[in-house]
Every structure is written in structure tokens, then in C-alpha cells.
Specification:
Layout lengths: L2 H8 L11 E5 L2 E4 L4 E4 L2 H4 L8 H13 L10 H14 L3 E5 L2 H17 L5 E5 L8 H5 L4 H4 L9 E4 L4 H7 L4 E6 L2 E2 L5 E2 L2 H14 L2 E5 L23 E4 L10 E5 L1 H4 L15 H16 L2 H22 L4 E7 L2 E6 L4 H9 L2 E2 L1 E3 L3 E4 L7 H17 L7
Parallel strand pairs: 3-15, 5-6, 5-7, 7-10, 10-11
Antiparallel strand pairs: 1-2, 2-3, 4-12, 8-9, 11-12, 13-14, 14-17, 16-17
Helix pairs in contact: 3-11, 4-11, 8-9, 12-14
This protein binds pyridoxal-5'-phosphate.
Pyridoxal-5'-phosphate binds next to helix 5.
Length: 397
């Protein structure tokens, strides 16, 4: 029995596995059991900021594992303090709560918003259409896509989903009962869709009028991916709470909520917590990522390489107008919307040694390791050009 057959037999069928058996990673490359090398342009779904096997991350993991792997949150832990200090320095938010994953950060932010609202007679939490906040019941209650929600209801009460990027709709949805809104400033799973300036402008105005909290979900867009530490900085949006995960544990499971002093004060000892959250090995790995980000001025490199990548993708759009529709995103969080299903392109790219991801059916998503080089971006563009020139066939029915 092959590993894939055994996998199919053993697990709940919640994932569509790629037909690859990874045995090793190095930099932006993955190597498979059959001796092939792949350029990874989706980086473990925007997790592996420094790629695979980065010496600084490996050293941090080994050193911390040798000291202690887990002691529980009864104890002050130096790696937690080190990572939290870096997060507050990079984000400007003074308070941090560590958890284990993105959806758990959302769940915590949701609870903070409810508690903050409960003493102010504000109950409603508002999310936006097509967003992705994770798989917990709290996250699902703030999303609208049937593919994530169907069959899982009933959802939590006093949750509303309003149309994304529709400023007029904000007027009818937000009011004195609104406790919080949650948004991705660049929607990731929805196909790399940035929030509009007008939408943020109206949101800010209504926030001033009604005094609700703004939660920025930066789980995919945060950690320097867009060239700034948080994507909301591009929109001059200063949220009250920020959720982070993906890159901040250096590939180990870690999530975080960042908040202002005022909002963090909503929680007292015993009101929220986790056994594993802020695991010291994950925090040490995450601290190594952020130290490297600062030491190498990586966000500037992301900005420059992102602009280069965007320019080349736009060139592809004008060279192949019947295949490509639009390029969206910032830094190294980019989407190329196709006029057709992206699945065959993903397969054709993989056959040529490049892993890209397709989201929202027609959008090729590029969220590579932040250390990806110009040459690797060029190689991706050249290979896309080859695939488009050969003509992408729809998959057999
Ligand atoms: C914007 C956003 N929020 C939340 C999540 C959920 O994170 P996790 O899968 O770690 O629970 C994701 C995951 O892709 C995400 O992209």
C-alpha cells in the first residue's frame, strides 16, 4: 500500500492531498521521495516566511527544546516574552495574548469583543462577505460562504455578515448596538481582494459615531507579508484588536491576539486561557523569524520583490488577455485572476516543478516564502508564460 493509499484509509477526508510525498525542504524548495525538486510559491499557505530549514529558526528550536518544551502558562517563559516584545515593537500594540492557531485567535478576539460589548449594551459582531476567519463556530458565524458553513448551523446569535467593500451597506448594518467589526484588509482565501479606501473611510466615520471595536484579521496578511508588518497599515487603519498566526511561529503552531491597553483590560485572570498557547519552542522559532525580518530589512525586500512580481504578472495579463483578468494584492501576497478555472494551470505548473495555489476557483495565489529571490520569481513568470502559450486545457469531465 502506498503512503497516499494509507493516508486515504486512515484520515477523515477533509483535505484534498497533492500527489507529492515531501521528504525535505530547503530555502524556497521542496524535495519529494521520487527525487524531484519543486519551487514552493505558496510556502505552507503563507506560513514559512523564511522558507525551509532556515539556520536561525533551526537553532532557536533546538536550543529551546533542549531547555524545556512545555511548562504551561502557570510560568513566565522567556521565549514568550521575547516574541511578545518583538510583536509589540513591530506592530505598535502594547498587549499580546498567545494561542495555538488562527481560528483560535479569532475565537479569542470574538470573546473579547463580546465581553467588551456586554458592559456597554453592544452585542452585534459584524463580519464581511467572502471572508475567511477559520473553522471554529465563532469564525464560521462571521462568514457567509456556503462551502464553509453548509450543514454546520445553527451559528452564534448576534452575528451579521455585510457585503465587503460596499460602503453604503455599512450605514444600514452598523449602529449603537455594534460591539465589533472584523475584516481582512486583504481577503486571502477569497482570492486576494484588498479593502477599498472608500470602505475604510466610511468604516472609520461610523466607528467615530458609534464607538465599536475594529478587529483586523491579519492571520494571512500579517507578519511582513505585504511589505508592512500589518496589511491594515496600508489603509491607515488602526484596529483595536489584531489576530495573527501563520508565520509568527516559524512553522510551529502559534497564534496571537494583539490589542490596545483598554481592550486587553477586558480580560482578567481566569477569563480566557489555553494549555498549549504560547508554546516556548514555537515562540522561540517565531522570535527567530522576526529577528531575521528586522536584521535583514526583509520587509523592504518584500516590497521591492512584490513590486517586481506584480509588474511581471501585469505584463502576463497584457500578453494573455484571454487567459488573465487581473492582478491584485501587495508585497508577496498576490493574486492573478484568470478567466477560467485555475486548477489546470496549477497542475501544469506542478508538472514543471513550481507549486502555486488556486483559491476562489479562478485565482492563482502567490504567497511564497518572504525570502524568495528575483530569479525564483522570474522562473515562476517564465513558467506561467510557457503554460499559457501551450494553452491551458480545462480538466477532463
Ligand atoms: C485570514 C485568515 N483567518 C483565519 C485563518 C484560520 O487560521 P488557522 O487555519 O490557523 O485556524 C486563516 C487560514 O487560512 C486565514 O487566512
Amino acid at each position: 500500500m502506498t503512503l497516499h493509499e494509507r493516508d486515504t484509509e486512515l484520515f477523515f477526508h477533509t483535505y484534498k492531498r497533492l500527489p507529492l510525498e515531501i521528504i525535505r525542504g530547503e530555502g524556497a524548495y521542496l524535495f519529494t521521495a521520487d527525487g524531484k525538486r519543486y519551487l514552493d510559491m505558496f510556502g505552507g499557505i503563507a506560513v514559512n516566511a523564511l522558507g525551509y530549514g532556515h539556520p536561525r529558526v533551526l537553532q532557536a528550536i533546538t536550543d529551546q527544546a533542549a531547555r524545556y518544551i512545555h511548562v504551561s502558562n502557570y510560568f513566565v517563559q522567556e521565549p514568550q516574552v521575547r516574541l511578545a516584545t518583538l510583536l509589540t515593537r513591530l506592530s505598535g500594540f502594547p498587549r499580546v495574548f498567545f494561542c495555538n492557531s488562527g481560528t483560535e485567535a479569532i475565537e479569542g478576539a470574538f470573546k473579547i469583543a463580546r465581553k467588551w460589548g456586554s458592559s456597554r449594551d453592544k452585542r452585534e459582531i459584524v463580519g464581511f462577505s467572502n471572508a475567511f476567519h477559520g473553522r471554529s463556530m465563532g469564525a464560521l458565524s462571521l462568514m457567509d460562504r456556503p462551502s464553509y458553513r453548509d450543514g454546520f448551523g445553527p451559528f452564534l446569535p448576534h452575528c451579521t455578515v455585510a457585503p465587503f467593500n460596499d460602503p453604503a451597506a455599512l450605514h444600514s448594518v452598523l449602529g449603537p448596538n455594534t460591539a465589533a467589526v472584523i475584516l481582512e484588509c486583504i481577503q486571502g482565501e477569497a482570492g486576494i481582494r484588498p479593502v477599498s479606501t472608500e470602505f475604510i473611510h466610511v468604516l472609520q466615520r461610523l466607528r467615530g459615531a458609534f464607538g465599536f471595536l475594529v478587529i483586523a484579521d491579519e492571520i494571512q496578511s500579517g507578519g511582513g507579508r505585504t511589505g508592512k508588518f500589518l496589511a491594515c497599515e496600508h489603509s491607515n487603519l488602526r484596529p483595536d484588536l489584531v489576530t495573527l498566526a501563520k508565520p509568527i511561529g516559524g512553522g510551529l503552531p502559534l497564534g496571537a491576539i494583539l490589542g490596545t491597553q483598554l481592550v486587553a483590560g477586558t480580560l482578567q485572570p481566569g477569563t480566557h486561557g489555553t494549555t498549549f498557547g504560547g508554546n516556548p519552542v514555537a515562540c522561540a522559532a517565531g522570535a527567530a523569524v522576526l529577528e531575521e525580518l528586522i536584521a535583514t530589512n526583509l520587509m523592504q525586500q518584500v516590497t521591492d520583490n512584490g513590486a517586481f512580481f506584480t509588474g511581471r504578472l501585469m505584463q502576463l495579463c497584457s500578453d494573455f488577455p484571454t487567459i488573465c483578468k487581473e492582478v491584485r494584492g501587495k508585497g508577496l501576497m498576490l493574486g492573478l485572476e484568470l478567466a477560467q478555472d485555475g486548477g489546470p494551470v496549477v497542475t501544469a505548473m506542478r508538472d514543471r516543478g513550481i507549486l502555486v495555489n488556486c483559491t476562489d476557483t479562478t485565482v492563482l495565489r502567490f504567497v511564497p516564502p518572504l525570502i524568495v529571490s528575483r530569479d525564483q520569481i522570474r522562473e515562476t513568470i517564465d513558467t506561467l508564460r510557457t503554460v499559457f502559450t501551450a494553452g491551458v486545457q480545462p480538466p477532463p469531465q
